Amino acid sequence: MSLIKQLWLIVAALLLLAFGGSLFIGVTASRAYIEQEVLIKNADNASALALTMSQMPKDPVTLELLVSAQFDTGHYRRVELRSPKGEIIEQRLGGDAIRDVPAWFVDLVHIEVPPGRAVVQDGWRQLGTLVLESQHSFAYRSLWRSTLSLVGWFGLAAVISLLLTWWIVRQIRRPLSAVVEQAQHIGQRRFTTVPAPRTRELREVVEAMNRLSAAVGNMLGEESQKLDRLRQQLQHDPVTGVLNREAFLSQLQIHLDSQDARASGALALVRLAHLVEINERLGRAETDALLNEMAHGLEQFGQAHGGGIVGRLNGSDFVMLLPGKIDLEQLRHDLGRRLAAMRERGRTPVGLPGALIDYAQGDQRSMLLASLDGTLSAAETRSDEGLMIAEGPQRRSLFTSHDEWRYALQVAMAKGIYLAHYPVLDATGELLHIECPSRLRLAGEWQPAGVFIPWISRLGLDSQLDLAVIDEAIRDITHRGKPLGINLSVASIQDAHFVIELQSRLKARPDVAKLLWLEIPEAMAIHDLASFRSLCRALQPLGCRIGLEHVGASFTRIADLQDLGLAYLKLDRTLVRGIDRVAEQQTILRGMATLCHSLGILAIGEGVENREEARVLFELGLDGATGPGIRQHEKPAD
């Protein structure tokens, strides 16, 4: 039984005990008082009447008149005169009916008062014994009315007491519910903190639990910082802090192979001209500072243009990856202005020639880089401030205008979406869920998401597409009965109407909601935490599992999200690729898996290319794997 129910029972028992005690004592005391008063009345009246009879003539008429007069002047049940032998000389009897008092109350109270007795004298001899008994009906009536008044007043007091108790219980229950919820969160490895309540006992418990949550959070933060430093050493250039050549090329390949908006965009290659001469003139420290300033400027430009990624290919060459549909001419203008500003702010005049090229899903990484490098050499030959657009691979555009794209996309979504199926398996080869990237039928063929997602975002159709994908996922789960993983776009999550629509669809199908895994890019959850929290609060009570994909660079921020109840993390492909050959990556992934398990979160590796990588991942403690090397019903090699 809950503490609140026990408190209510105690309050109710106390009220009943107080009422019963008050009623019992009140009725008992009143009955005793009435019995005493009636007894005195009987004795006094009997004595007075006997004295009067003793002084009056003793003929029958006089005796009858005296008895009748006494009986008629008061409330009597019985007035009688008996001879010494017990014979009735004169008698008057009254009725016992009590019409306005319940019979059960009369039987329960039962007033019993002895009659008054007195001797009537006739000179020196005893004429008889006078017996006088008063009527009790008025006593019952008085007790009944006082009892009703007591019940009424006590009922009013009970209502006020219960209302006051309800208010007090409510004030206690709020912090108590917070304490219970916090305890449940800790049991789920979500180390949240709550405000300390005013109740001293609860405040001590909450403060202790808050200290525990803070200690665990600090521990997890320290461990994640250590892992991030290892990742920085492995993937980042020690001088500038941007990605090194291997890490950037891996990111580029991931973008070219992806099934989302990252599958198309632009590449920019910028060179610090005459690096050798600059190094000789300024010295190593000044040159490193110049390189660091240049990398920082490119990173700022990339973040301002949709979350670009910057890497250092060699000593003087920096490359920037800008995902999404981008106008190269506009990019050339904006980047040119930024490079000009960087040249002006520099400690010494420098040349920053550059080259731009667009990319799309399926392009060859080597061809893109070769074209960029050739164009950069041409720009450097012309001028140290040149910025040229490289000639990219010849591609056939499905449609030529915005209106054509909008019409084609809306028609395709109206006809229906196809969901591809890629399994996510655990260490035993059992299915965790199925990844389901969307496909649309455009220009007579089913096109992957990388082809149309940039146009979906550009035309503001994200929410419409995601709702269509959810509807198809509901049909798929209903038909197959297997858990599906669906990607949600950033724009949809930031759309309150979309979240409400999604919530209503899943409320109508609670059986489907429990089999739905929703994935959000890591960058979105970190940079728009408010929208992500709203999504979690709306969907988690329905049984959905919410996780992050492409987790890597911002892993240290995951501890900030541990109170949201994340179900899983998909670790980025750059950390998984070649895991069977690089010991440093194994250390990083083992630590990530340990931290995820400390928070009750599944750790899943993305982009697994072969069974050997999958075997190492599971040995490191990861819970699942997905990618080209993962096939359903196929267990990793022992």
UniProtKB/TrEMBL annotation:
InterPro entries (UniProt xref): Cyclic-di-GMP_PDE-like, EAL_dom, EAL_sf, GGDEF_dom, HAMP_dom, LapD_MoxY_N, LapD_MoxY_peri_C, Nucleotide_cyclase
Chain segments annotated as transmembrane: 6-27, 150-169
CDD domains: EAL
Domain GGDEF stretches: 263-392
Residue ranges occupied by any EAL domain in the UniProt entry: 398-638
Claim: Transmembrane is one of the keywords in the record: yes
Species for this entry: Halomonas saccharevitans
Domain of life: Bacteria
Keywords: Membrane, Transmembrane, Transmembrane helix
Protein name: EAL domain-containing protein
Stretches assigned to the HAMP domain: 170-221
Pfam families: EAL, GGDEF, HAMP, LapD_MoxY_N
SUPFAM superfamilies recorded: EAL domain-like (SSF141868), Nucleotide cyclase (SSF55073)
